């Protein structure tokens, strides 16, 4: 096995922080928090349907599937952020109270992208590490066999856009997912092949990936043009969908056709380059 | 000391005693209809409607229907919120009954002893005796048969009206439905030309008033009687917690979406027994609309949204011109999206009509 300086220093840094946390009486606002329970996924490559909506020759098409790589180890929370975790941030005045559906040993729900970002910022300050929302790509990699992507209709006739709408409607309907809004205890939806709990249960998770319209060049998968809207982010779970940053309850109705997320929550990624910096800081190297 | 159940029954028994006086004239008409042909119709649950002729074959007849009242808890939204429902024939709304002008509707109403409350039925299509409410009040374990003549063509609400404070409570617990009395020679457009429909759907809209606990969560009750006091308090605020089609948010979406084909003409009968509403077909229109539901009046043409008065049923006729997914909503969009009043149509077949609509340029960066 080759020597990976980032990975090696990262582990040392995390261990050092845990040690500091215990020594300084966990819980008091001044003391650093221990790192959340996380899993470290080794680098790898996988096929991934790109997020957003795609046009080719002026017609909507399915998201292109591209070969993507996670180049460095990915450290991500094993569990979604819990009600108790989130309450600590609220208690310290750094997070707004969530519109939780249930209290107890369950993931926090009723949180927006803005809330999730605020929590990440607070956790980073309190642990001395860099924690942030995963990208769509990172989440998909961590979700492994439980990743589904967008539910899309096939466009068999480019001159009849209605076929695609009807096909998508029927695909979603045929999945037969029944609303299941009551949050369960952490771990209730089991562990996936990557060692993460509750992926694609009944809490959809915010990502840092913006909603995007992409025009694909006529020759294939190359993006000719794209317009991002970072007021809307991808959320992931049973399927991938897109929500405005301030939404806390993803329920839909009216013209909205589709499967609404039962709940909105999140889990965070430990930014390893940031980890390296903090490890070096802890060790007095920089 | 009265139990709650005795108290509830007691108030309606008084109403029944008063109503008995008006029972006499109904008996005399029995002779006149004795020689008429009879037809027995099995009702089907909405949004579907029992098979019927649009143009009457032959003369007036007696059409026999039977409905069994079912009190049962039902779930009315995706969060699992429970309503202690009272239903005609097990569905909200109760089934649509279709006859022709001059026919007689003969309904046998059954209140099984597994129910806890007294019920009756008030037909807006009927004349006298509080719409039949005065002749149909039955306790659990009883049944009653009422016959009335369908003298006015149109769509009409029926609902439970067992006296006093029981009336609105039974209605907002689910006890309403509709009758459609067709002209003997069928529907006519604004110029008197015959029009027909290929499919008919019946959408009943309900406003529900579910009490909440101290945390703001919807409360659950063991039986209808237990929720009465709390529910009336919410009702008196006049702001429903749910406004839904066919008894539940999402009852007419997904696998239950209504279906049609391009070129087909549909008739949508829409009833609201308690509160005003304003149906709208997103991406479509009302070709011919009887807002008030009464077919002796010429239909309005080309409506975008139509108004259904609380306590009435209307009818809208539309021929689908484009394939796709259509939403049919109460166009108070807060009620449609937040409170549940949304249905879908999936419309297949045909080709996209570019002349009616085309996307000239797909979304792209603004040209500088």
Kindly list the characteristics that best describe this protein.
heterodimer; A: 286 residues; alpha+beta; six-stranded mixed sheet; four-stranded antiparallel sheet; disordered N terminus; B: 368 residues; 6 helices; 34% strand; flat
Task: Give your account of this protein's structure.
The complex is a heterodimer of chains A (286) and B (368). Chain A is an alpha+beta fold. In chain A, helix 1 (5-23) crosses helix 6 (272-282). The longest helix of chain A is centred in the first third of the chain and has 19 residues, at 5-23. Mean pLDDT of chain A is 84; it is low at 1-27. Chain A has helices at residues 5-23, 83-91, 113-127, 136-143, 161-175, 272-282; strands spanning 38-41, 44-49, 53-56, 59-61, 65-70, 74-77, 131-132, 204-216, 223-236, 240-244, 264-265, 269-270. Chain B starts with a helix and ends in a 20-residue tail after the last strand. Chain B is 14% helix and 34% strand. In chain B, the strands form five sheets. A six-stranded mixed β-sheet of chain B has the order 13-12-15-19-17-18, with no helix packed on it. In chain B, strands 1, 2, 3, 5 and 7 form a five-stranded mixed β-sheet that branches. Chain B is of the alpha+beta class. The interface between A and B is medium-sized, with 32 and 34 residues.
Give a quick summary of the entry.
The complex is a heterodimer of chains A (286) and B (368). Chain A is of the alpha+beta class and 286 residues long. Helix content of chain A is 27%, strand content 23%.
Largest sheet of chain A: 6 strands, mixed
**In terms of structural class, how would the helical and strand content of chain B be classed?**
alpha+beta
End-to-end distance of chain A: 28 Å
Q: Taking Cα atoms only, what radius of gyration of chain B do you get, to the nearest Å?
A: 22 Å
Please estimate the helix content of chain B: 10-25%
Order of neighbouring strands in the sheet with most strands of chain B: 13-12-15-19-17-18
General form of chain A: globular
What structural class do the secondary elements of chain A suggest? alpha+beta
Overall number of strands of chain A: 12
Spans where pLDDT lies below 50 across 5 or more residues of chain B: 1-7, 9-28
């Amino acid at each position: 096995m080759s020597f990976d300086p980032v990975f090696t220093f990262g582990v040392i840094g995390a261990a050092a922080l845990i040690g500091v946390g215990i020594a300084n009486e966990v819980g008091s606002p001044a003391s650093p928090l221990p790192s959340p329970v996380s899993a470290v996924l080794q680098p790898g490559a996988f096929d991934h349907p790109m997020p957003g909506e795609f046009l080719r020759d002026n017609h909507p098409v399915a998201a292109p599937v591209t070969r993507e790589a996670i180049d460095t180890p990915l450290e991500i929370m094993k569990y979604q952020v819990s009600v108790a975790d989130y309450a600590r941030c609220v208690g310290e005045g750094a997070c707004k109270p969530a519109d939780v559906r249930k209290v107890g040993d369950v993931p926090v729900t009723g949180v927006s992208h803005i809330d999730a970002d605020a929590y990440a910022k607070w956790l980073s300050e309190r642990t001395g590490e860099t924690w942030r929302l995963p990208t769509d790509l990172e989440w998909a990699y961590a979700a492994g066999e439980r990743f589904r992507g967008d539910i899309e209709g096939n466009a068999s006739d480019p001159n009849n856009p209605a076929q695609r709408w009807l096909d998508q409607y029927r695909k979603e309907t045929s999945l037969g997912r029944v609303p299941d809004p009551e949050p369960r205890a952490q771990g209730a939806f089991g562990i996936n092949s990557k060692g993460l709990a509750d992926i694609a249960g009944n809490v959809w998770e915010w990502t840092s990936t913006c909603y995007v319209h992409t025009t694909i060049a006529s020759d294939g998968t190359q993006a000719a043009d794209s317009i991002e809207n970072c007021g809307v982010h991808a959320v992931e779970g049973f399927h991938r969908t897109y929500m405005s940053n301030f939404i806390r309850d993803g329920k839909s109705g009216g013209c909205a056709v589709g499967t609404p997320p039962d709940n909105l929550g999140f889990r965070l990624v430990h930014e390893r380059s940031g980890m390296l910096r903090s490890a070096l800081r802890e060790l007095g190297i920089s | 000391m009265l139990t709650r159940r005795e108290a509830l029954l007691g108030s309606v028994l008084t109403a029944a005693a008063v109503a008995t006086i008006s029972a006499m004239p109904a008996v005399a008409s029995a002779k006149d209809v004795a020689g008429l042909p009879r037809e027995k119709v099995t009702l089907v649950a909405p949004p579907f409607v029992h098979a019927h002729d649009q143009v009457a074959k032959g003369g007036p007849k007696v059409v026999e229907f039977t409905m069994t009242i079912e009190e049962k808890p039902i779930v009315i939204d995706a969060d699992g919120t429970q309503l202690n429902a009272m239903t005609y024939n097990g569905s909200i709304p109760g089934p649509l009954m279709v006859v022709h002008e001059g026919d007689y509707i003969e309904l046998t109403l059954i209140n099984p002893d597994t129910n806890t409350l007294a019920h009756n039925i008030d037909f807006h299509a009927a004349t006298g005796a509080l719409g039949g409410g005065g002749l149909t009040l039955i306790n659990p374990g009883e049944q009653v048969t009422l016959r009335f003549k369908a003298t006015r063509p149109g769509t009409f609400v029926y609902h439970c009206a067992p006296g006093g404070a029981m009336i609105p409570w039974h209605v907002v617990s689910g006890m309403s439905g509709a009758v459609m009395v067709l002209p003997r020679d069928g529907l006519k457009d604004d110029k008197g030309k015959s029009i027909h429909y290929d499919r008919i759907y019946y959408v009943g809209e309900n406003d529900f008033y579910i009490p909440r606990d101290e945390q703001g969560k919807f409360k659950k009750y063991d039986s209808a009687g237990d929720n009465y006091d709390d529910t009336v308090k919410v009702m008196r605020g006049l702001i429903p917690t749910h406004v839904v089609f066919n008894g539940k948010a999402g009852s007419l979406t997904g696998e239950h979406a209504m279906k049609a084909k391009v070129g087909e003409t549909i008739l949508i009968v829409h009833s609201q027994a308690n509160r005003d509403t304003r149906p709208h077909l997103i991406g479509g229109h009302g070709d011919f609309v009887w807002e008030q539901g009464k077919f002796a009046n010429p239909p309005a043409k080309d409506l975008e949204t139509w108004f259904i008065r609380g306590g009435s049923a209307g009818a809208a006729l539309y021929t689908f011109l484009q394939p796709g997914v259509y939403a049919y909503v109460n166009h108070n969009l807060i009620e449609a999206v937040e409170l549940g009043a949304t249905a879908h149509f999936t419309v297949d077949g045909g080709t996209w009509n570019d002349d009616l609509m085309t996307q000239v340029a797909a979304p792209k960066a603004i040209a500088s």
